[in-house]
Amino acid sequence: MKHGRNRAKLGRTSQHRDSMLANLVGSLIRHERVRTTVARAKAARPVAEKLVTLGKKGSLHHRRLAVAALHESDLVHKLFAEIAPRFKNRAGGYTRILKLGARYGDAAPTALLEWVERPAPEPEPVKESAKDKGKSPKPTKPEKKK
Where residue 54 sits, what CATH number does that domain have? Predict the structure, then answer.
């Protein structure tokens, strides 16, 4: 019987699906947000949230479980050092899925999977154009007395 076995198969074997979800969650950890299909985002959400829960616990055992799930130790370090501490006062619901619309090539519904609490993006410095690099600002002309 199939009671309680409602995992999305995503048209892949179990090993391929687990590897794909590990890569997707790894990209989420690395880039803070990922654009993917709605089905993949819904499948990756529980994996990402369980990894954040491991990061909040923070023991060596939980770190090893996270390495086993993600396959990359540098991502586990970022998860435990930067991402999990953001959610220390939150009891769950660490990710959000924003639906974006159909993909151009095959009309697959796409979504944005991102962390709920993200740091504000740093403003980019204003670059000077090539013309303005060597020039000093133009002084204002003093008014003439009559």
Answer: 3.90.1030.10
Q: Hey, CA dihedral for 101, 102, 103, 109, is it positive or negative?
A: positive
Q: Which two tokens stand for residue 119?
A: 């740091």
The answer on pLDDT for 128 being more than 80 is: no
112, 100 contact by CB (below 8 A)? yes
In a domain, 4, yes or no: no
The total of other beta-carbon atoms located within 10 Å of residue 118's CB is 12
The CA distance from 96 to 106, in Å, is 24
- Asked if residue 7 is part of any domain, the answer here is no
Flag whether 126 is in a domain: no
Give CA separation, 108 vs 39, 98, 143, in Å: 10, 15, 66
Distance CA 109, CA 104 (A): 10
Q: Could you give phi then psi for residue 41, rounded to 5 degrees?
A: -65, -40
Domain of 104? 14-115
8-41, pLDDT tens digit by residue? 888 889 899 999 999 999 999 999 999 999 999 9
Predicted TM-score (pTM) of the model is 0.77
Q: What would the two tokens of residue 79 be?
A: 């998860």
